[in-house]
Amino acid sequence: MSKSSAPKSPASRSSAPRSSAPRSLAEWLHHLETLHPVGIDMRLERVSEVAKRMGLLNRPIATQVITVAGTNGKGSTLAMMDAVARAHGLRVGTYTSPHLVRYNERVTINGDDADDQQLVTGFSRVEDARLQLPVVSLTYFEAGTLCALWCLAQENLDLALLEVGLGGRLDAVNIIDADVAIVTTIAQDHANFLGTDIMQIGREKAGVFRAGKPAVLGSRCLPVSVAESANAINAPVYCLGEAFSHSVADDAANPLCGNTQPEWNWSGLTCQADVISLTNLPDPGLPIDNAAAALQALILSGMAVNEDACRRALNKVLVPGRMQWIGQWCLDVGHNPHAAAYVAKRLPCVPEGGRQWALIGMLNDKDADGVISALLPRITDWVCVTLEGERGRSAAELASRITSLGGHVHHCASSPEAGVQTMAEQLAPTDRVLVTGSFYTVAALLEMTLPQA
């Protein structure tokens, strides 16, 4: 595929005067925060116009594009597709959000984070296009998405994997037509923007489907509006439990102790309705529903599957901040009840005499009661931490909710870092700590050396 580049401005659309462009990635990220009056503005007209000026809509950004939408499981589904596709020798690029420690994590090329210069060049292209008259205002996420798409379009990719940030139909990622689209799960989250009507949330997420292109439904519990949306545009539907499925030979794992799953089997369909089966796949340490959807989407994209390559990839896939163990600490960014229930099921039993702590910090627009209730049966002691900022929630408020639900709050801390200091004084060798509730909480700890008893 020939490389995409930003077109020259036509004479009738001269560039507006502008001050010197930022030079470093940090300067660009600061600049992006000033471009639009609100942080989230769910419309596609502005981002589509800038994409046209950049030439991003003139040709595909990769030979195949798979877009992943849903409430939970997007990141793990995309990570497994990335690992499996690269194990098959494909050149793969990904775009995900948010990042945990470094912005560069949002864009990867063949498993490597984009370097600063790639992103700086991409942001320069976005800015040049944005400032053509009439000037277009972009949100931080929209500018970042356009930069990522431009970076991916330069790399002659066999496969581009795109994660929807919020919603689906009106998300900036959706300016790119997917060859295969996945909806992982549907649950209530981001109610301020998506509302509380599960049927409507399903329709919004299903907005990533395209007419005549495969739609992969990665959960048995999706609202009917998702399949209805696909059928309305004649997108072939591949449902978990129907077109593709997974099974475990020995289902004796104790769900309350998070035992590792035994090997599992997968069966799915090609676009020609041929059945493909894979056996004795390793537990990736991530939801098997997501792994099954990842395999189905890759096959629908045209990848010729190799069983050994799948095993190798699934055996070593890792998603930072998703059930990530660092010694006695388990870090998981789950921030809604559905995600918390999965974490509770997968937590291993603590050694005899030990305590299962939870260090939790949440934003004020999240369902704290639902998250706490899902985790409560597994947690003996809670440490609540304050997250600062406009959307932050205080440790005191979290503690009040935990106490009212019957939990034991050991301490309230002014920040995630302060919470770790408290844990350093309390942690015994037989204790385990779950860190959860928000990307911000987990990101703070990933930048620290965590104490081990």
Automatic annotation (TrEMBL):
Which cellular components does GO assign to this protein? cytoplasm
Q: What SUPFAM superfamilies does this protein's entry cite?
A: MurD-like peptide ligases, catalytic domain, MurD-like peptide ligases, peptide-binding domain
Keywords in UniProt for this one?
ATP-binding, Folate biosynthesis, Ligase, Magnesium, Metal-binding, Nucleotide-binding
Give every Mur ligase C-terminal domain span: 321-439
Sorted alphabetically, the Gene Ontology BP terms of this entry are:
folic acid biosynthetic process; tetrahydrofolate biosynthetic process
Pathway recorded for this protein? Cofactor biosynthesis; tetrahydrofolate biosynthesis; 7,8-dihydrofolate from 2-amino-4-hydroxy-6-hydroxymethyl-7,8-dihydropteridine diphosphate and 4-aminobenzoate: step 2/2; Cofactor biosynthesis; tetrahydrofolylpolyglutamate biosynthesis
Q: What does this protein do?
A: Functions in two distinct reactions of the de novo folate biosynthetic pathway. Catalyzes the addition of a glutamate residue to dihydropteroate (7,8-dihydropteroate or H2Pte) to form dihydrofolate (7,8-dihydrofolate monoglutamate or H2Pte-Glu). Also catalyzes successive additions of L-glutamate to tetrahydrofolate or 10-formyltetrahydrofolate or 5,10-methylenetetrahydrofolate, leading to folylpolyglutamate derivatives.
Q: What is this protein called?
A: Dihydrofolate synthase/folylpolyglutamate synthase
Organism of derivation = Vreelandella andesensis
